[in-house]
Design goal:
The structure holds two protein chains of two kinds. By secondary structure, chain A is of the alpha+beta class. Chain A is built from 46 helices and 17 strands. In chain A, the strands form four sheets. In chain A, strands 12, 13, 14, 15, 16 and 17 form a six-stranded antiparallel sheet that branches. Chain A has a five-stranded antiparallel sheet with strand order 3-4-5-9-7. A four-stranded antiparallel sheet of chain A has the order 8-6-10-11, with no helix packed on it. The radius of gyration of chain B is 17 Å and the shape is globular. Classes of the chains: A alpha+beta, B alpha+beta. Chain B: It is a peripheral membrane protein. Chain B: This is AP complex mu/sigma subunit domain-containing protein.
Chain lengths: 1247, 193
């Protein structure tokens, strides 16, 4: 054997391995592609061989080639083969290749499910690790669904190495299979307190990723994270948590208050810059969430700004960059604090590092004021000139425009200056942002009426100068501004001094080289100009000029008629005909000017881009309803294909519809007109109608500030923005002087009333009045527009699906248990093949799940009572709060609202939420009050799990009262629990059965519903207690089974001190806690009030599973009635059937076929006669009671598969004909098979 | 989340590429090329962050890189990651490589890209940071190397011998392209991650 291996490897060693491949590629620098293609051919040969080592080597090489950009998806199947090698070395190669090239579209990925599952449960932790790592890269929704449960069990693996990987990969699973989030979340939360720091860090990581997208669902975890933050020393974890808090604070301002102090402490104490930086960031987030103005918070801001200044001044560029980044966040809410560091930021504009310059630019956005806008923009314009890279220059350009146009041109005092800036920017070569400048020009010209004269003059100059026409037009985006220039000149042509000249400029032959949409605008606006020229010359006696203009158009327009652009052509030919007609009229000396200009009469009003969308739909209006009756289907079918060449018949039929409704339509039209007249949002064509909605300053009524005379209306030549700086300064001085005069008068009157305000600096923001007025955007929006910010949300965001409310999962009064449909699928078959029997396999898993949970319920109970306690404390606490002096003003709105909520009866909010409230509201309790209370109190409250909750003391009597209540509550809980139990487990007894067949009934409506089934069978019963049990194989440990026993108290007394004991056999042993002797019983971890049932689970280890066996056991307990208590015992026999060692395991038909072919299996068969039940019921029973899954079902024949906990394969072929069922079975362990078949037989003999 | 991890040399030749979101090979190559262009034209003394939003979806993304001698290590991350933290992570990564390869140089990465992948897998999983403690990473990597050796057993010996012989045939193979001074000042002070 060994020789064979050596021989094989000697054959192999002359194969090319990865190193040889790399070496080869390096040696073939000239013909690399050719060399690689021969290598790929070799690899293809190697992949055809049977030797897995050769294959692995080939796959390893492919992985390298993938990095070089070669597609290797053709080898996907071979990769799967290598992945399934039993050797770790090869397996790892396979998984690496898969992680590099598999994705959701890879079809072989579905073959991997079982392999991955096997690796996940491998005894070797590195097999599991490699599978998890690989899976994290290529998990698909199917894989996530099928493996979610396996991964979840790994989260509790004994090895932290596996635990942390399993925890981390859950995030990917959630993304692909959001349904898994709710069932998995409690365990994920547990992992936050895992003893291993790596696991803890992984859990924090996952929850932070989840919370980042849907923070509100994770608010209830804040206390836990707070605890971690104050206790953890791992900087990675701290950073993550602090980042998470940054996301949570906007939702809960009280959280922010609680955070400030520890964060400030961290800022002072930490030496890790990364931590410091994140702390500063979160403090900023907190400050943003708290509306500013509190005195103690301004200290925090100062601290942050100071620290950031230190970062920015650091020689390390990274810190500088981050400092600026954080500064820009402060800027949004506290611009004043940042503005004091203007020097530093302007300095950064000169930094050699582009990233830093860009960040500094961002900051400038918030630093401008009316006062310094011109100055800052001037500086930026200098940078524009100096900038070498186009990207940076473009960035500067957009920033200049951003800065100037922000909040509706708030800071612009002189629009002539702004227009000149825009015109100067047009001199930039090769910018991508021509359209941006153009839209600014249009915007300003339309909305600032006073500037139109100036703007038109400038635009005419732009059109005339033609420097924009030169150069490579297509590449040069700047020609876009001509679009704006032409339109402005045309639309506002009445302001033009010499329209003729502009018209001439617009019709130059060179224009034809511009992009089509610009030419179209040129043509259209030439017509407008034409109308203006006509009008100008109309009154004059000399008609020659007007006729010359017509002639000019007739000469030049044919150039555009020939344009390849459809729109240009259409407009040009239309206008050409028009002009020709006009020329005819002119020759007859007919006055046409008025009629021509009527073509372009009326003014365009600005409308905000989103205005239309924001008009709310009036009540009662159904936009989807047909206005007229829909055309009948046959017509529409006819119409569709013929739409382009529509014939007359369909038209006729449509006309009929109209006729029918003619009167009704007329009536509606009337009504609509009426409504429109009253509707302020309806834009009407006639200017008179505007008056209807002129309560707000409208176009006509805008109090346009007259342009100050000190500003010349036109700067000769190309405008120089700099001139405006000086002019502006003069204007302001003058204004100030005027104001002072007024103020003096006022002062005299008021004596010293407001003296302080007047002294506040040479000029404050308000003092600077703009030279021009902007039509405010609000007018452009409908009044009751819905303020919706979700316009930009991406509907395809995968995280949307993860927006799942987890709070009620984490216990509360309205605790919503996981619905059956929400549980993780446990080893079910794939959905596509699913028929009713598998569904039952699924249910089987679910009951398991339910059982697992029921053991948790005890814990829940404990917590509930604790919460109850807390609530009471809180009520009292609230009482205390009411006594204290009112909180500082700014806090009030939040606080008052919250206190109302907290004081409300606890039933209204979920316990967890009010828990959070309590945690949060406890923060601002002032110490003096506590002291005042202290003497009165004697007993401290029960120890609390959260150390940071101040422990309120409480008087004696209240406590005893509370204890009583607690008891009552407990009882109630238990009753509730009983109900739940019936629901989950007692499927057999009546109403509870529905949970089992839920899925079946829904999905298989056409078939008969299954009768309710339960695997629980009676263990023992007497007049006090009834025990039913079920046995399941343990998924993780091949030598363990879990016995779930439900104890039901049938008596009227209290049952307590229950002890469960069995006599171990050689083969099967009850797992007892360490140190216990093999004869000790296990204490059942609960007591049973009358009528209550509860479930306990006991783990047994078994050695051989091929034979069924019975274990004798005894349950001892104490019956406690009102006056007496007696010891009782109940003997029972636990029957371990072979079935109970089987685990429902899905199997693919190809793997199944392989298994059967392999010939390792022994066969046996069974015949059942006289069975009168539908085939799918039969299958369902086998699946449910014997833990099989259906591999394939064809008519009345089905193949089924199951696996024992020790890995034996059991295959069944079930056939039915005439009430006879024959089962052919194969298994690698004959005696196991025989016993399973016996048990199956027994199952069916009972019915 | 980390979106991608790229290592390439001063000429833009990829030495390792790990994408945590799927792209087809052409786009991957394009991303590598563009990233190289962005990163390589930057001076030595500028900050290590770059807004590379256009490369791998979303403006939320940043490129965080370090340059060691002949190699660039580039991490593309979104805003959930701490910038300075990632810089430290790169440092941990490089130091780990240095330990695992004993004075790592570019050639180690060229010829043993699979090993680099395996080391990386112990640090970052599916785009999330798995482990930052260097000793822990090295322990796990070593344990796996040991397993690999034991599996190869006698069968592995001849192959190793042959590969040694093959290497002997390459006297010109430069051995001393050291990755340089990796103990670059860690001014970020994430003390003992």
């Amino acid at each position: 054997m060994a020789l064979k291996i050596v021989k094989g490897s000697i054959d192999r060693m002359f194969d090319k391995n990865l190193q040889d491949l790399v070496r080869g590629i390096r040696n073939h620098k000239e013909d690399e592609a050719k060399y690689i293609s021969t290598c790929i051919d070799e690899i293809k040969q190697e992949l055809k061989q049977d030797n897995i080592a050769v294959k692995a080597n080939a796959v390893c090489k492919l992985t390298y080639l993938q990095m070089l950009g070669y597609d290797i998806s053709w080898a996907a199947f071979n990769i799967v083969e290598v992945m399934s090698s039993s050797k770790f070395t090869y397996k790892r190669i396979g998984y690496l290749a898969a992680s590099q090239c598999f994705h959701e579209g890879t079809d072989v990925i579905m073959l991997t499910t079982n392999q991955i599952r096997k690796d996940l449960s491998s005894p070797n932790q590195y097999d599991t690790g490699v599978a998890l790592t690989g899976l994290s890269c290529f998990v698909t929704p199917d894989l996530a669904r099928d493996l979610a449960n396996d991964i979840m069990t790994l989260m509790s693996h004994t090895k932290p190495y596996i635990r942390k990987k399993a925890v981390l990969i859950m995030y990917k699973v959630f993304l692909k299979y959001p349904e898994s989030l709710r069932p998995a979340f409690p365990r994920l939360k547990e992992k936050l307190e895992d003893p291993d720091p790596g696991v803890q860090s992984a859990a924090v990581n996952v929850i932070c990723e989840l919370a980042r997208r849907n923070p509100k669902n994770y608010l209830s975890l804040a206390p836990l994270f707070f605890k971690l933050m104050t206790s953890s020393t791992n900087n990675w974890v701290l950073i993550k948590i602090i980042k998470l808090f940054g996301a949570l604070t906007p939702l809960e301002p009280r959280l922010g208050k609680k955070l400030i102090e520890p964060l400030t402490n961290l800022i002072h104490s930490t030496s890790a810059m990364s931590l410091l930086y994140e702390c500063v960031n979160t403090v900023i987030a907190v400050l943003i969430s708290l509306s500013s103005g509190m005195p103690n918070h301004s200290a925090s801001i100062q601290l942050c700004v100071q620290k950031l200044r230190i970062l920015i001044e650091d020689s390390d560029q990274n810190l500088k960059y981050l400092g600026l980044l954080a500064m820009s966040k402060i800027l949004k809410t506290h611009p004043k604090s940042v503005q004091s560091h203007k020097d530093l930021i302007l300095q950064c504009l000169d930094d050699k590092d582009e990233s830093i310059r860009l960040r500094a630019l961002d900051l400038l956005y918030g630093m401008v004021s009316k006062k310094n806008l011109m100055e800052i923009v001037k500086k930026l314009m200098l940078h524009v000139d100096k900038a070498e890279g186009t990207t940076y220059r473009d960035e500067l350009l957009t920033k200049i425009i951003d800065i100037c146009s922000q909040s509706n041109y708030q800071y612009i005092t002189n629009f002539e200056w702004y227009i000149s800036i825009l015109v100067e920017l047009t001199r930039l070569e090769g910018t991508r942002h021509g359209h941006l400048i153009a839209s600014q020009m249009l915007d300003v010209a339309i909305r600032v009426k006073a500037i139109r004269g100036f703007a038109v003059a400038q635009m005419a100059m732009l059109l005339d100068s033609g420097h924009l026409l030169t150069g490579n037009m297509q590449r040069n985006g700047i020609c876009e501004v001509l679009y704006a220039a032409a339109w402005i000149c045309g639309e506002f042509s009445e302001h033009l001094d010499d329209p003729m000249q502009t018209l001439e400029a617009m019709l130059r032959p060179k224009v034809a080289s511009l992009p089509g949409h610009i030419q179209a605008v040129y043509v259209q606006n030439a017509a407008k100009l034409f109308a203006t020229v006509l009008q100008k010359h109309e009154g004059a006696t000399d008609s020659q000029a007007a006729q010359d203009t017509s002639q000019l158009l007739i000469e030049r327009l044919p150039l555009f008629v020939q344009s390849a652009n459809l729109e240009v052509q259409e407009r040009a030919s239309c206008i050409l005909q028009l002009v020709k007609y006009i020329q005819k009229l002119q020759q007859k000396d007919v006055e046409v000017a008025e009629e021509v200009s009527a073509l372009f009469a009326g003014e365009l009003n600005p409308v905000a881009p989103k205005a239309q969308k924001k008009v709310p739909v009036p009540e009662g209006l159904d936009l989807d309803a047909w206005i007229n009756e829909p055309p009948s289907e046959s017509e529409s079918e006819d119409e569709k294909p013929k739409a382009v060449f529509a014939k007359e018949e369909p038209k006729q039929s449509r006309a009929r519809h109209i006729e029918v409704d003619e009167k009704e339509l007329a009536r509606r039209r009337e009504a609509r007109k009426q409504e429109q007249a009253n509707n302020p949002f309806y834009i009407k064509s006639s200017p008179s109608s505007q008056k209807v909605y002129q309560d707000a300053p409208g176009v006509e009524h805008i109090p346009v500030v007259q342009i100050d005379l000190s500003v010349p209306l036109k700067v000769p030549g190309m405008p120089m923005s700099e001139q405006y700086l000086k002019l502006e300064e003069e204007r302001r001085q003058k204004e100030r002087a005027d104001k002072k005069k007024k103020d003096k008068k006022k002062k005299k009157r008021e004596k010293r009333g407001k003296g302080k305000r007047d002294d506040s600096g040479p000029e404050s923001e308000e003092d600077i009045t703009p030279a021009h007025q902007v039509d405010i955007v609000t007018e452009e929006m409908p009044e009751n527009a819905l303020p919706s910010d979700d316009d930009d949300k991406d509907p395809n965001d995968p995280h949307k699906a993860l927006d799942i409310d987890l709070d009620n999962l984490l216990l509360g009064n309205d605790y919503r248990p996981l619905a059956d449909s929400e549980k993780l699928p446990v080893r079910t078959h794939r959905r596509e093949v699913l028929k009713s029997p598998e569904e039952d396999g699924d249910q089987d898993g679910i009951t398991q799940e339910a059982k697992r949970r029921s053991s948790k319920e005890k814990k829940e109970k404990d917590r509930k009572s604790k919460e109850e306690e807390k609530k009471k404390k809180k009520k009292k606490h609230k009482h205390v709060v009411e006594e204290e002096p009112p909180e500082p003003l700014s806090e009030e709105p939040v606080q008052s609202e919250e206190s109302a909520e907290v004081a409300a009866p606890p039933t209204s909010t979920s316990a967890e939420a009010s828990d959070l409230d309590f945690w949060l509201s406890s923060a601002p309790v002032p110490p003096p009050i506590k002291e005042a209370l202290a003497p009165k109190t004697s007993v401290a409250a029960a120890p609390d799990s959260e150390p940071d909750v101040p422990k309120d003391a409480e008087p004696d009597e209240e406590k005893s009262l509370k204890n009583k209540k607690k008891k009552q509550k407990k009882e109630k809980d238990e009753k509730k629990k009983k109900k739940r139990h019936h629901h989950h487990h007692h499927h057999g007894d009546g109403g509870g059965g529905d949970s089992v067949q839920n899925g079946t009934v829904e999905e298989e409506e056409e078939e008969e519903p299954l009768p309710p089934m339960s695997n629980y069978c009676l263990l023992a019963e007497n007049s006090y207690i009834k025990m039913v049990y079920d046995i399941q194989g343990n998924l993780q440990d091949g030598s363990q089974v879990v016995v779930s026993v439900i104890f039901e108290n049938k008596s009227n007394s209290f049952l307590k001190s229950m002890e469960f004991n069995v006599l171990d056999s050689l083969n099967s042993k009850l797992q007892r806690p360490e140190g216990a002797s093999p004869h000790d019983g296990l204490v059942v971890p609960f007591q049973l009030p009358p009528g209550v049932s509860n479930e306990a689970r006991f783990v047994f280890s078994v050695q051989s599973i091929v034979m069924p066996q019975k274990l004798k056991g005894t349950l001892t307990f104490i019956v406690k009635s009102e006056d007496s208590s007696t010891h009782e015992k109940l003997d029972f026999k636990l029957h371990f059937t072979c079935t109970s060692y089987l685990i429902t395991t899905p199997c693919y038909s190809d793997a199944y076929a392989k298994l059967l072919e392999s010939g390792d299996l022994k066969s046996s068969s069974l015949k059942l006669e006289g069975l009168n039940m539908p085939f799918h019921h039969l299958l369902a029973r086998i699946c449910f009671h014997h833990h099989f899954s259906v591999v394939e079902r064809i008519d009345s024949c089905a193949s089924m598969y199951s696996r024992s906990i020790q890995g034996h394969h059991v295959c069944l072929l079930v056939k039915t004909a005439n009430q006879t069922v024959s089962i052919d079975a194969k298994c690698d362990e004959p005696s196991l098979l025989a016993n399973v078949l016996d048990e199956i037989k027994q199952t069916f003999s009972q019915c | 989340m980390i979106k991608a991890i790229l290592i390439f040399n001063n000429h833009g030749k990829p030495r390792l590429s790990k994408f945590y979101e799927h792209y087809n090979e052409d786009i991957e190559q394009q991303i590598i090329r563009e990233t190289f262009h962005l990163v390589s034209k930057r001076d030595e003394n500028v900050c290590n962050f770059l807004e590379g939003g256009l490369l791998i979806g979303g403006s939320d993304n940043k490129l965080i890189y370090r340059h060691y001698a002949t190699l660039y290590f580039v991490f593309c991350v979104d805003s959930a990651e701490s910038e300075l933290g990632i810089l430290d992570l790169i440092q941990v990564f490089v130091e780990t490589l240095d330990k695992c390869f004993e004075n790592v140089c570019e050639l180690d990465l060229i010829f043993h890209v699979d090993k680099v992948h395996h080391i990386l897998a112990e640090m970052v999983m599916g785009g999330m940071v798995l482990e930052t403690n260097m000793n822990e990473i090295i322990t796990q990597v070593d344990a796996q190397v040991k397993m690999e050796r034991s599996e190869a057993g006698i069968a592995g010996a001849p192959a190793r011998a042959v590969s040694a012989v093959k290497n002997m045939n390459l006297p010109e193979m430069p051995k001393n392209i050291n990755i340089g001074d990796i103990s670059i000042k860690v001014n970020l002070l994430l003390q003992r991650l």
